[in-house]
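Worked problem 6 (solution included).
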Amino acid sequence: MADNENAAMVGYNAYGESTGWLNCRDEPMSQWGDLTQRQRTAWIAAATAIEQSAQPANPIREVRLPAGWSLIRHGSRYGRGRRP
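Solution. The predicted structure is:
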């Protein structure tokens, strides 16, 4: 399976379940395996976009301080300082 194809299939099935397996024209929806490659690619693109939007914009990274150093809060900001 292509990247995110499983997520796309889950999304497609959820859409089908929520609409009584009718598309936006109130016509019966095809099963995932009967979709054209273009349709599956569109669902995979949608799943990829959803996954990317769920990622934090600025993920927290681990910070390693030198031995003997610690973070000290100064008002609303943190700075570094030596431990006593």
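Discussion: The longest helix spans residues 37-53.
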